[in-house]
Specification:
The chain is built from 23 helices and 20 strands. By secondary structure, it is an alpha/beta fold. Helix 14 links the parallel strand 10 and strand 11. Bound molecules: adenosine monophosphate. The site of adenosine monophosphate has 13 residues, from helix 4.
Length: about 575
C-alpha cells in the first residue's frame, strides 16, 4: 500500500527533475525512493532535448536515466505509431530484452509500445509487432540492419536515438553496422550515448554523431571525505537468479549478530524481508514508506538483539546509527561509489573490524573496481560457500561450545554416566556420540541438499558481456577472426602482452596463479601471439582473476587483462 506521504517523497526527488505525473506514479509504485546520480545528471538535459554522452556502468540505474526522459518526450510529441519515434541500440540480445522490458515497465501509464529486435528471435514475429505499430524499438545492431535492408524497419521518424553500452558494441565489431544504422535516421534527432569506458574510439564516435553533448562522468564525480573504515570487504559475483540462495548461505556461514542488508527499492526490501522471515531469519524492513514509530521500533529490536537483520533502502538507512552493527550486506550493488562508502562506513566503528559483503551480478562486477578505488581498499572476490563449508562451520560452533564446556568445573556429576557407558563402548566411541548429540542439539538437522545452488556456468563466448548467458550475434560488418573457442567450462582472457614482449607460458601462469590464488594446474591452454596472449581459465575463476590482475605486473609491466570476446 502506498500512502500519500510516501508518494510525495518520491515525487520530490524525481519530480525535481521534471518528470511528469504518470511517470512519477509508476516510479512510486515500483518502490524507487530517489534518483540515482546518473539519473539526477541525465534526466533534466535529456528532457530539454540535449544530446548526451554518459559514462556509466551497469548497475548505476542508467537504463532509467535514458528511458524515463525518452518516454516522456515521445509521449509529449504524440506521434502516431506507423514508424518508431525512438531507437535504442544495445550490444546483446539479453540486453535488448532487459532494456525493452524496462522501457515497457516505465512506460506502462503512458501506453507506449516497445518492440525488442534481436537475432535468434523469429523475424516474422518481429515483423508482425513492427507492423502493429511501435513507439520504441530496442535492437541489437545486426538484426536492426537486417530489418532496415529488408525495408521492414523505417527509421525516418526517429527523434531520439540511444546507443547503450557503446564501448561494448564497438568491441564486438559493430562499428560499421552502427554507422550504417545512424545514416538511416534523421540528422536532427536527439542522440544519447552511454558507455562504461571512454576509449578514443568512443570519443571519436561521439564527435561525429553528437551535437554539443552534455557530458556526464559519474564514476569520477564521487567523492568521500574522511578515512576508510576498518572493514573487510568481500564480494560474491553471482547471477541475479541465485542471489537469494547465496544470501542464505552467507548468512548461515557468517552468522551475523546484527546486519544491515541493502536493497534498491522498497518493493525489494519488503519482498526480501518476507522471504528471509519465511526461512526463519529474524528480519525487519526499513524504507521510506515506514512510519517513524515503526522505524524506532525496528532499530530498538536490532539494538536489543531481538532481530539480527534489518533490510533497508539507502534512504531509510540514512542517519541510522547502530554502534554494534557487525555486517553490511549489499544485496543489490549500490548505484554509485560514494553510496558504497556510506553503506560500508556503518560497520567497523569504534576500532572493531566490520564486514561488508556485496552480491554483484556478473554484469555489475565493473562497479566493484570503482568501489575499491573509492575505498582504497581491496575487495576479496569470494567463492559461494558450499554445503561442505556450512557443515564445517556448524561443527566448529559445536566444537567451540564443547571446548568451553570442558573448561567448566561442574562436570563431575556426569562421571557415573561415563563409567556406565565404558562397560559397553570405548571412550572414543562415547566421545563421538556425545559430539554428535551436542551438534544436533545446537545446530539441528539441516537438509542441505535442499539449498544446493545452481549457478549456471558462463561462457563469455556465448554472451558477449561478462557473465551473461545466451547467444551473441555476429557483427555483419566485421569478420570473425578466430574460429576455435575455449574448452568446455573454460573461458579465455586476453592479456595485452605477447611474444614480442618476451612473454612465456610460465610468466602467465606465475602471474595469474600468484596474484589470484587459483591453482596453476587449473589454467588451461595458453596461446601466445605477437603482442597479446590468450589464457584459458575455469569459467568460475575468471572474475576473480580479472579483479586480481587489475594492478598486477607481468614481467615488471602493467598489462591489460580482460575477458576475451570470442568472435
Ligand atoms: P541499470 O544500471 O540500468 O542496469 O539498473 C540497475 C537496477 O537498478 C535495475 O534493477 C533498476 O530497476 C534499478 N533502479 C534504477 N533506478 C533506480 C532508482 N532510482 N531506485 C531504485 N532502483 C533503481
Amino acid at each position: 500500500m502506498m500512502t500519500s506521504e510516501t508518494k510525495s517523497e518520491v515525487l520530490e526527488g524525481f519530480a525535481g527533475l521534471g518528470l511528469n505525473a504518470k511517470l512519477l506514479t509508476t516510479l512510486a509504485e515500483l518502490g524507487y525512493e530517489e534518483p540515482t546520480p546518473i539519473q539526477k545528471a541525465a534526466i533534466g538535459p535529456m528532457l530539454a532535448g540535449s544530446d548526451l554522452m554518459g559514462q556509466a556502468a551497469t548497475g548505476t540505474g542508467k537504463t532509467a536515466a535514458f528511458a524515463l526522459p525518452l518516454l516522456q518526450r515521445i509521449a509529449e510529441a504524440g506521434k502516431d505509431r506507423s514508424q518508431p519515434s525512438a531507437l535504442v541500440l544495445v550490444p546483446t540480445r539479453e540486453l535488448a530484452m532487459q532494456v525493452a522490458e524496462a522501457v515497457h515497465k516505465y512506460g506502462q501509464r503512458l501506453k507506449i509500445a516497445v518492440v525488442p529486435i534481436y537475432g535468434g528471435h523469429s523475424f516474422g514475429q518481429q515483423l508482425n509487432m513492427l507492423e502493429r505499430g511501435v513507439d520504441v524499438v530496442v535492437a541489437t545492431p545486426g538484426r536492426a540492419l537486417d530489418h532496415i535492408r529488408r525495408k521492414t524497419l523505417d527509421l525516418s521518424g526517429i527523434s531520439i536515438l540511444v546507443l547503450d553500452e557503446a564501448d561494448e558494441m564497438l568491441d564486438m565489431g559493430f562499428a560499421e553496422d552502427l554507422e550504417a544504422i545512424l545514416a538511416q535516421t534523421p540528422s536532427d534527432r536527439q542522440t544519447v550515448m552511454f558507455s562504461a569506458t571512454l576509449p578514443p574510439r568512443i570519443n571519436g564516435m561521439a564527435k561525429r554523431h553528437l551535437k554539443e553533448p552534455v557530458r556526464i562522468q559519474i564514476a569520477r564525480e564521487a567523492s568521500t571525505k574522511g578515512t576508510a573504515p576498518r572493514v573487510r570487504q568481500v564480494a560474491y559475483v553471482v547471477p541475479r537468479a541465485s542471489k537469494l540462495a547465496v544470501l542464505g548461505r552467507i548468512l548461515d556461514l557468517e552468522d551475523p549478530a546484527s546486519a544491515l542488508v541493502f536493497c534498491r527499492t522498497r518493493t525489494e526490501v519488503d519482498q526480501l524481508t518476507e522471504k528471509l522471515s519465511a526461512h526463519g531469519y529474524r528480519a525487519q524492513s526499513l524504507h521510506g514508506g515506514i512510519s517513524q514509530d515503526q522505524r524506532t521500533r525496528v532499530i530498538k529490536l536490532l539494538r536489543e538483539g531481538a532481530i539480527d537483520l534489518v533490510i533497508a533502502t539507502d534512504v531509510a538507512a540514512r542517519g541510522l546509527d547502530i554502534e554494534q552493527l557487525s555486517h553490511v550486506i549489499n544485496y543489490d550493488v549500490p548505484v554509485a561509489a560514494d553510496s558504497y562508502v556510506h553503506r560500508i562506513g556503518r560497520v567497523g566503528r569504534a576500532g572493531r573490524e566490520g564486514v561488508a559483503i556485496t552480491l554483484a551480478d556478473p554484469r555489475e562486477s565493473r562497479l566493484l573496481c570503482q568501489f575499491e578505488h573509492q575505498t582504497k581498499g581491496k575487495i576479496e572476490i569470494a567463492k559461494v560457500p558450499t554445503v561442505a563449508d556450512l557443515r564445517a562451520r556448524r561443527l566448529k560452533v559445536t566444537c567451540a561450545a564443547l571446548h568451553e564446556a570442558a573448561g567448566a568445573d561442574d562436570l563431575e556429576q556426569y562421571r557415573s554416566a561415563i563409567d556406565e557407558l565404558t562397560q559397553d563402548h570405548d571412550l572414543m566411541k562415547i566421545a563421538l556420540a556425545a559430539v554428535k548429540l551436542a551438534h544436533l542439539a545446537s545446530c539441528g538437522e539441516h537438509d542441505d541438499a535442499e539449498v544446493e545452488i545452481a549457478i549456471p556456468s558462463y561462457t563469455p563466448a556465448a554472451a558477449g558481456k561478462p557473465g551473461k548467458p545466451g547467444k551473441r550475434e555476429k557483427p555483419t560488418g566485421a569478420r570473425a577472426k578466430r574460429q576455435s573457442g575455449p574448452s568446455e567450462n573454460m573461458a579465455r582472457v586476453y592479456v595485452g602482452a605477447g611474444d614480442a614482449e618476451g612473454i612465456r607460458p610460465k610468466d602467465l601462469v606465475g602471474a595469474i596463479a600468484g596474484e589470484s590464488g587459483i591453482n596453476g594446474k587449473s589454467i588451461g591452454a595458453i596461446e601466445i601471439e605477437e603482442h597479446f596472449s590468450l589464457v584459458e581459465l575455469p569459467v568460475d575463476a575468471v572474475e576473480a582473476v580479472l579483479v586480481a590482475m587489475r594492478k598486477a605486473l607481468i614481467k615488471g609491466k602493467k598489462v591489460t587483462v580482460r575477458r576475451f570476446t570470442e568472435r
